[in-house]
Amino acid sequence: MSNGDSARGQEEPVMDQKAVQDSIENVMKSENVSAVTKTDLLKAWWKWCLAVEVPVSFDRMQALAFSYSMNKVLQKLYKNDPDELRAAFERHTSMFNTNCDWGSVIHGIVISLEEQRANGAEEITADMIQSIKIGLMGPLAGIGDSVDQGIVATIPLGIFVPMALQGSVIAAFIPGLVYILWSCGWSWFLFQKGYTLGREAVTEILHSGAIKRVIDIASILGIFMVGCLSASYVKVSTALEFTSGGGTTTLQSILDGMLPGLLPFCVVMGMYLYITKRGPKYLRLIIYTMVIAIVLTGLGVL
Amino acid sequence: MNDVLRAVLVGLVYWVSMGRAFYYFSFAFRKPVVLGVVIGAIYGDVQMGLLLGASIQLMYMGGIEAGGNIPSDQGLAACIAIPAALVNGLDPGTAVALAVPFGVLGVLINNVRRTINSFFNTKGDQLVVEGKYDALAKFSFLIPWLANGVLYFTPVFIATLVGPSAVQAFLDVIPQWVMGGLSNAGNMLPALGFALTLVVMGKRHYLPFFVLGFFLYELLGFSMLTGAVIGLCFAMIASLFVQHNEKEVLDV
């Protein structure tokens, strides 16, 4: 069993053919000793649906819900290897955020990857699992939020709320019922799909020997998407204005002229530098942010 | 039914709707039109509750909670405005006007919840180090859910009990700049999650792709799906060069 994948990182030598062959055989053999049953999958899916938004926090979003869903599966897969088990829990309690029902395809894929890793497929590195999670969560959140909330939740409201206004109690419940049926059905379908697809896709990747390339692509995609998501969710603008010549100019318009999104970008990079330099002191960072925001708002800067 | 019991029930209704246990259900339940029927039943007037709820619902018809960021808390708006309107016999229009500030206030409660939940992350890290995975499971759902319960139940219970006028007076007391500062902080804090993701991925030499993603989105404002397609292309182009370089290195 490999450990310290992240430490080895980019210096990994080009894989030799023999190792790939061995690992394919291992995976093939592991098909027969598959540890994850349908019941395990169903339980993991249900726990995800139950917990998903409950432990959401600013610093790691749905991370704890993800680990809650994986908890029993990981304990089962790595029961003979405490170090690997701990490493698995560490990677699945790190930042995660996606759409609840569309995102469940990621859980399926991750369970299938973890299962193969536990069964000895060393080419499935911790970095690869992490990159696939982060690379998929953004796009799935994007599609999921717009389809679920923009279509499935909104259109039935548009149809039935006018009926409710005329006094129909039943009409009040129909939009919610539509939403519940859709999300339960769709998320369980995707969860299973992720499990079976992940398995086949990964076996195929092992055959082609292109693992490092996939990891690179997933990492770059993930980091690019973090950029897009930061720009979309982090909102900071200054309210300062001053008189120049005849009229008043806002500082924000000057900043926008220089580089749009400069302030939110500085906030993200500032926090990144703080964490890399001072370590992960999240609560302190949150309190600093709140105090700074309130003081700057009070002074009229924000 | 006495007032205290009613306030308890409305507080619990808000917890079920915003506590988010079994997300799909709570998402469907927290629609003002549904809450109107339930709260109407608590106050013995389902038809009036339905009318008030449906009226408030119209205001929140298209609110998308992108990335779990609630633009306005429909649940709190409904759970405070509907009982107040039922008790004081307000018309739906007034109820809607009353609901608006509480919808905004609910966003602050959500931010407080997300801040409190950070504690469970820290606790979770500690439990992973100690290898107490069953305890980790408890701290991932049950305990945060109960903790959130206190946070959600309390304001609605008090607001329903002491009545709308007192609540309005309380809102007037909080200085505007504190409210504004909290909402600015709420807009800044998602940065923490993204900064942490960058740290966790740990590939410092890929940071230019973060900068590229950030400013491309800022300039063009495409959908996340478009972003994924663009990002995938960049990733594949970059990986072509990486492979090319490796071959060259090996040849030499």
> Mind describing the biggest β-sheet of chain B?
none
Give the C-alpha Rg of chain A: 23 Å
Major sheet summary line of chain A: 2 strands, antiparallel
Name the strands of the widest sheet of chain A in spatial order.
1-2
Radius of gyration of chain B: 24 Å
- Assess the beta-strand content of chain A as a share of residues: under 5%
> How confident is the prediction overall: mean pLDDT of chain B?
83
| CA-CA gap between termini of chain A | 52 Å
Structural class of chain A: mainly alpha
What would the principal axes of the Cα set say about the shape of chain B?
globular
Low-confidence stretches of chain A: 1-15
Uncertain runs of chain B with pLDDT below 50, 5 residues or more? Answer: 246-252
The first-to-last residue Cα distance of chain B is 87 Å
Overall number of domains of chain B? 2
Describe this structure in words.
The complex is a heterodimer of chains A (302) and B (252). By secondary structure, chain A is mainly alpha-helical. In chain A, 72% of the residues lie in helices and 3% in strands. In chain A, helix 4 runs antiparallel to helix 5 (82-92). The longest helix of chain A has 40 residues, at 169-208. Residues 1-15 of chain A have low confidence and may be disordered. The relative contact order of chain B is 0.09. Chain B has 252 residues and is mainly alpha-helical. Chain B has two domains: 3-187, no CATH class; 202-251, no CATH class. Chain B has helices at residues 3-19, 23-29, 32-42, 46-59, 74-88, 92-130, 133-140, 142-162, 164-173, 176-188, 190-201, 207-220, 224-251. In chain B, helix 1 packs antiparallel against helix 5 (74-88), helix 4 (46-59) crosses helix 5 and helix 4 crosses helix 6. Chain B has 13 helices and no strands. Residues 246-252 of chain B have low confidence and may be disordered. At the A-B interface, helix 3, helix 4, helix 5, helix 7 and helix 8 of A face helix 2, helix 3, helix 4, helix 6 and helix 7 of B. Chain B: It is a multi-pass membrane protein. Chain B: Pfam families: EII-Sor.
